[in-house]
Amino acid sequence: MSWARKYLLYNPASRNKKELVGLVNDFQRFSVNDGPGIRTIVFLKGCPLHCFWCSNPETVSSCPEIMLISHNCIGCGKCIEVCPQNCYQHQNNIVSSVLRDKCILPECGDCQHVCYANAINISGRYLTVDEVMEEVLRDREFYERTGGGVTFSGGEPFAQPQFLLEMAHAAKLLHLHTAVETCGYVSWSIMSNILEYLDIVLFDLKHMDTEKHRQGTGVDNQRILDNLKRIDATGKTVRVRLPLIPDFNDSEKNIRETSAFISGLSNLEALDILPYHRMGEPKWDQLDCTYKIKGVTPHDKDKVYELAAIARTYGIEVTIGG
Ligand code: SF4
Ligand code: SF4
Ligand code: SF4
Which domain holds residue 77? Predict the structure, then answer.
């Protein structure tokens, strides 16, 4: 990658002031679980919630950040040489930690570019709407064949409202199907402004008990429940998604309360029960954060089927896995 390109990716101030940029964590092509058909998922950074089970913890911060995979380090020493802030600490030549307080991201990014062992990754790039669309359009043919499109996810996509608005608008101008996955903790004035460019909303509902919701995510659920009802009142199609977390929201009581609440919606397409998995666990270590449910085992299939069957008794369509 050229120096100029790298500078543009990591330093928003270096761009034309009039050009809007957003902080994108990653793209996932050929997704079939986040909206209809084959889709490209645009993962944005920044989230107002802090869920203890989050499988994408690198999307929570609204700043670029280093992800360090020490066991990939081959001890070449290049990151130590190039870091202008002396952020890297090592033991027996192997990089063991990064002094995050000293790191000057997004103005830098040099360490990632010299690490050929994939031990250093920077989560978050500033991209323009055109750059996002360029990536999304790579798979247009597949969207057309399957009824797919683009899904904006995160993090919380509404946390970058202007960027989301312009991406969704651009996608509609390109006749793409658009979806958003949201935690729902967004001011209604922001959300309602963008909804017209979205074909479907994938709405996460993590707990019906507001105190337990606060304990698990850092915020209560009142605004979330209100927004879900408001979206429904606009006539927009909604799929509610329940990440099923052991010993948090997997009680029969919570499944019944969730199902009863959403069965009152007029435009509900389905409830997607998303079984807990541990794929995000290593990323907490890479960010020097503590994963509080280390070692917790996912539910067995029977338990998930049993809860899905309870939800179906409320007359709603239920899928497992989305
Ligand atoms: S550049 Fe990568 S492989 Fe080399 S010392 Fe740094 S982390 Fe290890
Ligand atoms: S981004 Fe720059 S300042 Fe931060 S750790 Fe890497 S080389 Fe050092
Ligand atoms: S809402 Fe989603 S992205 Fe945000 S912390 Fe929770 S699980 Fe992670």
Answer: 66-123
